[in-house]
What does this fold into?
Amino acid sequence: MKANILFAFAGLTAATLLAGCASDSPPTGEPAPTKTVNSAAGMVLTDQNGMTLYTYDEDDTNTSNCTGLCAVAWPPTFAADGAAPSGHLTVITRPNGTKQWAQDGKPLYTYYQDKKSGDITGDHVDGTWHLVRPE
It folds into this structure.
């Protein structure tokens, strides 16, 4: 991982790190991320809680490469088992077998430093994380 990402992890507590490493699968997935919010950078796609969604340049199409500590800082937007693709929103299978929402095959994540709807603090972190715009 790049130095900026490692530095960002330093702000996480040990308990958060241990909890995040123990499992990156939630008890249930979320509905398709179809909400939009106006941010300082314009309209962005959000999860059902209004939190900004991001993509990661290091991911391949239909493949998440953000696992372990990366998934602690950048929580995947999990999809429920049986979730169906809709328009540009697709569902991929993560390395651990859980389902994750994607936009045109690019996995979607939130960012742990975003605290409220419309926050976009993860945009351009390490030059590899980017806001998701509504299609």
